[in-house]
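We keep the chain:
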Amino acid sequence: MYHSFTESVKHIDLPKRFTWPFFYSPHPLCCAAAAEVQRYIGSRSDWAEELSQGKMFGVLVVRNTAGEVGFLAAFSGNLAGENFHEYFVPPVYDMLQPDDFFRREEAEISAINNRIKELELSPEYVAREQALQSRLREAESLYSEMPLLKAEKEHLQAIKAESDVAWWQHQISSLNSRMQRLKTHYDKERRAVAEELKALRSEIEPLQAERAARSAALQREIFLRFNMRNALGEERNMCDIFASTPQKEPPAGAGECAAPKLLQYAYLNGLHPLCMAEFWWGESPRGEVRQHGNFYPSCNSKCKPILLYMMQGLEVDDNPLEQIVPAEPTILWEDDTLVVIDKPEGMLSVEGKSGVLSAERWAKGRYAEAMMVHRLDQSTSGILLIAKDKTAHKALQEQFIKHTIKKEYMALLEGVVAEDSGRIALSLKLDYENRPRQMVAVDGRSAVTEYEVVERCEGRTLVRFRPLTGRTHQLRVHSAHHKGLGTPIVGDDIYGRGGDRLHLHASRLEFTHPVSGERVVVESLPKW
């Protein structure tokens, strides 16, 4: 499992502290180790088809007891249906052993699944369920007359003063009776169908409850067997590690990623961790943006609680995001009602937990009632609009809601965009396991961007973006995703290759002044 470097790395200085795995630039030793792992997996033609679909790998540079520097390699999940491969470290706990309790219990749960399917697909069950659903739809169809009857009743109420008393009372009484009969029939049918459906599923629902209970118990039993080490020599199971987190329970797949495997093997074999990195191999997963060969941070939902525990006892790099000291913003336009600033890259828009200077804190230090009207990502520079009182804030926010505010961004993309202009419509939603990453999803929120190529030079493209919606990371995903422009923004450390900074700048803002009613246009050039 321990590998020596095939080429000398003596010219590379050792890192002073271990990698902060949630935001990092890979150390040169990790780059050298990753290159060796990539050559190896590229030589495995038997894995080519599976790996083309995408998998995360990790490398851990270590020092052995003899003082020699080498590296370990790992993959996330399993590979070719197995947990053990000679080149890679083993899993923390192997669930794929033929005689393991997991296999036995999994077989029992599968048998319950098969029984549920057998019952649900039986001709008698299907026919009876369809008949009951048809009966319910018929009752609902009759009940759809109710709004018309209510409208008729409202009309009668409106003409009461002008109508013959006896006629009006007869009409209203008749209408009330019709409405009551309709409601009684509908309620009776709905209850009857619900009871018959419950009776129909009387054999299935206990099986479903048993399946859920056994699955939850199995998952917990598995996590109790994931006994994770740290650099202090301590050991805790996965349930204990996650007990103090907001989610309380470990998510499915926790402990099976590359990073925990690497640290676990190092601790168990007397190897001292020096630095670590993870890279993606193959195509992007559906809806996500992963670039082949790029390095990525460890995930937050599965890995962060585990790694924070496993790194105890190591000297670890500070979180780079908490060390950022952004420049002061520049005032571009100001009057008694509002101020427009040029937010520098690295500054938060609103106050966060990291303590990094935010535009909100800067504004409140100068204007007593300052309120942020919109936001830019910490990595994005450019125009930011701030209201000086609640009235202006409300008026400006309404313009954002009604899409009467026009925004433009300038972005430098890593590759060449073929079309001179176009429109990207890819709905987005949060990737819960990798916050704050966003992913393309049919059930996501609508996200639309218009773009125009400004210049192509030396394999890169300068683009002007006009976002018609304001989703988190919209321009970054629309740039990098293969259904968008297919090339990430230069310096994008989430969807691209990273770098000194993100080359995305809010360059133009047009809005209606909340007091004068005049259109105001503010522009700013990027400082790349």
About this structure: The mean pLDDT is 93. The chain has 13 helices and 19 strands.
